[in-house]
Design a protein that fits this description.
Layout lengths: L5 H6 L10 E6 L2 E6 L4 E6 L13 E7 L2 E7 H4 L10 H4 L3 E6 L5 E5 L2 E6 L15 H4 L3 E3 L5 E4 L2 H4 L2 H24 L6 H4 L2
Parallel strand pairs: 2-10, 5-7
Antiparallel strand pairs: 1-2, 1-8, 3-6, 4-5, 6-7, 9-10
């Protein structure tokens, strides 16, 4: 039986699919990974956050991205590193946000301690995420990094399940309604009688 080497296969025009890129970040002392592009849309600095209507241990706040309200979840709280979300502007100054797609649509921002790198794992090495794996299938695997350290792959459905999404949507809706009420009753608001000639 004739077995072709990877170099021979590449030379014959059959290209092995590349592994999808992975965003590697740190929370506490551990490194984690999420698929870049498929899940992580962007790594960004923390903008000015507004407080949610009800304080929730893992929610740092929210911000507007176009017409959408984006909740900021402290991944350190969700992973058991911290008891309460980081909220003080000075403490948020050097922490990055990972703007992520939610399963089923919309986006959420994950507050992490450090964004380390976007890597493209080598296909076929032990401990690497399989290029054919979906976001859900890649979760729970260990990703061996170039320096010999390990990143643990996560999936958004474990970070934000359906029940949590419903609670978060309800919280944001109540926060949006409160903001609209304050906008109507603020000092610049005029009643129809005030605007009449």
């Amino acid at each position: 039986m004739d077995h072709a080497s990877p170099q021979q296969v590449a030379a014959c025009g059959q290209v092995r699919p590349e592994a999808p890129p992975v965003m590697v970040f740190r929370v506490g002392e551990r490194q984690y990974g999420l698929p870049a592009g498929l899940v992580v849309r962007e790594c960004m600095p923390v903008p000015a956050l507004r407080a949610p209507m009800v304080a929730v241990a893992h929610v740092s706040g929210w911000f507007r991205l176009g017409a959408e309200m984006v909740a900021v979840l402290d991944l350190g709280v969700l992973l058991g590193v911290r008891a309460h979300a980081v909220r003080a502007p000075l403490d948020l100054l050097y922490r990055p946000l990972l703007l992520c797609n939610q399963p089923g649509g919309g986006c959420v921002a994950l507050l992490v301690d450090a964004a380390l790198d976007v890597i493209r794992p080598q296909k076929g090495r032990a401990g690497m995420v399989d290029a054919g794996a979906t976001e859900a299938e890649g979760a729970g695997q260990e990703l061996e990094l170039g320096d010999g350290s390990i990143a643990f792959m996560l999936r958004m459905t474990d970070i934000l399940d359906d029940d949590e999404r419903m609670r978060l949507d309800s919280l944001l809706e109540r926060t949006r309604a409160r903001a609209a009420l304050w906008a109507q009753t603020g000092p610049d608001a005029t009643s129809p009688a005030d605007g009449a000639p």
